[in-house]
Amino acid sequence: KKVLLVCGPGNNGGDGLVAARHLVLFGYDCTVVYPKQSKKQHFINLKKQMEDVNVDILEEMPADAKEGKYDVIVDAIFGFSFKGEGGIREPFGSIIKDMVASQ
């Protein structure tokens, strides 16, 4: 199964990075979209761990996402504390629209 994980820069995004690594170990074909990469060492380490298991890490949505090429899309962008006041800032506004269009 092909899984697309879309990760934000916070803790929820970190959970998505961990999920990608674990899913690969269970035999899933994972691709991660990680447009606003955190500069914190913990997140740098998580990204390195994904690279070590050959997870593709992209900065924008792949063109084939809208074509139904993924069996599952995991939203790991925002956590429960997200308020969304003033709208959703880019690049996440466009990414969310692409995720909806891929359904």
Task: Provide the fold topology.
Elements: E1 2-7, H1 11-25, E2 29-33, H2 41-52, E3 56-58, E4 72-76, H3 92-101
**Given the C-alpha coordinates, what overall shape results?**
globular
- Stretches where pLDDT is under 50 for at least 5 consecutive residues are none
Kindly state the percentage of residues in helix: 25-40%
CA-CA gap between termini: 16 Å
Number of helices: 3
Report Rg: 13 Å
Order of helices and strands: EHEHEEH
What does this structure look like?
By secondary structure, the protein is of the alpha/beta class. It has three helices and four strands; from the N terminus they run E-H-E-H-E-E-H. The chain has helices at 11-25, 41-52, 92-101, and strands spanning 2-7, 29-33, 56-58, 72-76. It has a four-stranded parallel sheet with strand order 3-2-1-4, covered by helices on one side. Strand 2, helix 2 and strand 3 form a beta-alpha-beta unit. Helix 1 runs parallel beside helix 2 (41-52). The radius of gyration is 13 Å and the shape is globular. The mean pLDDT is 88.
Q: Nutshell version of this structure?
A:
The protein is α/β, with parallel strands linked by helices. The chain has helices at 11-25, 41-52, 92-101; strands at 2-7, 29-33, 56-58, 72-76. The chain has a four-stranded parallel beta sheet, covered by helices on one side.
Annotation keywords:
alpha/beta; 103 residues; single chain; 36% helix
